[in-house]
């Protein structure tokens, strides 16, 4: 494909004048053009409004239905639209979860959503090397493992696996309701959260994870690793959280 020159007599990547100039393609993919037009249409629609059908969009934009289908797939992955029955409707905005020492419950409520959880498993397991390191226990030590599906207004948006040192939190077995906030229960036991380290990556779901999150294995997920310490610097938890990239976003507040 030939390129259209940007800036007279300036080669791609030339930084003369303090800025780089690059050659741009003279033609954008049809699916990108269709997606741009679709975004304009979506701005005039409300949550739950139907999106025009593939056939109607193909006729309107004078492109093949596969071109429209690709643009719709991109918007589905981004969470701008969602399937409903045999059609497609406009999605509500993604829930924004703050990266902080607040619980998922607090974050969901602050965004006007109703939080919930479905218990998948709750058992004691031997600590593997990574878990043992993060919880400061010997490898093979029994640790508490809690796996739950996270809900927002009844919709599955995350899958959270939490590992806790059993010697500190064995009492949760008789006092804690796993459909509620674990952070509230930990704080209620007298533990004060001091700090946490988090790392976020993008991954694809395994078949089991996709089934629990009611999504496809092709949907990008946000994988969050967290290690939390109490005010004295002792480990509280190790968390592996998977979140649907089309339903949730994370936000950090930074200060100097």
UniProtKB/TrEMBL annotation:
The keyword Zinc-finger does not apply. It comes from the Bacteria. Residues 26-93 form the HTH gntR-type domain. CDD domains: WHTH_GntR. This is GntR family transcriptional regulator. The keyword Isomerase does not apply. Residues 1-21 are annotated as: Disordered. Keywords: DNA-binding, Transcription, Transcription regulation. InterPro entries: Bact_HTH_transcr_reg, Chorismate_lyase_/UTRA_dom_sf, Tscrpt_reg_HTH_GntR, UTRA, WH-like_DNA-bd_sf, WH_DNA-bd_sf.
